[in-house]
Design brief:
Oligomer: single chain
Distance between the termini: 33 Å
Radius of gyration: 18 Å
Number of strands: 0
Largest sheet: none
Shape: elongated
Structural class: mainly alpha
Helix content: 55-70%
Strand content: under 5%
Number of helices: 10
Mean pLDDT: 84
Length: 136
């Protein structure tokens, strides 16, 4: 076991989050492969033209297919979706990464954005304290 994996094992899970580990990666392979395909604009158009057929092409599970049809990003994550791949699919739905963060945390979009800004300010402040200088 590496130091990094030992550190991950010691950390308590974040309440309300789905841990993306090896098992989830295997479970979500088809969904993530489909989302990866959306790097190509022609594939995004093919999905829009025949969503069900496109999902069948990647052999999504019924759980994954329902999550996609329902536009339920949290259910996609629970079905093995990786948020970085899901961002491509979410973009087709008109969502961006901040929208996904809002959904994952249960915060409104405005509250989530304010949280990000406050965390950035906290990190900057902590850097000043730890280094003794600004703009570290």
């Amino acid at each position: 076991m590496t130091m990094a994996s030992a550190e991950v094992r010691r950390r308590p899970p974040i309440p309300g989050t789905t841990l993306f580990d090896g098992g989830m990666a295997r479970r979500g392979f088809a969904l993530n492969a489909m989302c990866y395909s959306f790097n190509d604009a022609a594939n995004r158009e093919a999905f829009r033209a025949d969503e069900d057929g496109y999902c069948r092409k990647f052999a999504l599970t019924p759980e994954q297919r329902k999550a996609v049809a329902d536009r339920d990003v949290l259910a996609m994550i629970e079905a093995g979706g990786n948020v970085y791949y899901l961002a491509k699919l979410a973009g087709i739905f008109g969502l961006n990464v901040q929208d996904l963060g809002s959904l994952q945390t249960g915060m409104s979009l405005d509250d989530f954005k304010a949280h990000l800004v406050s965390q950035r300010a906290k990190i900057a402040s902590d850097m000043v304290v730890s280094t003794g200088r600004e703009n570290a």
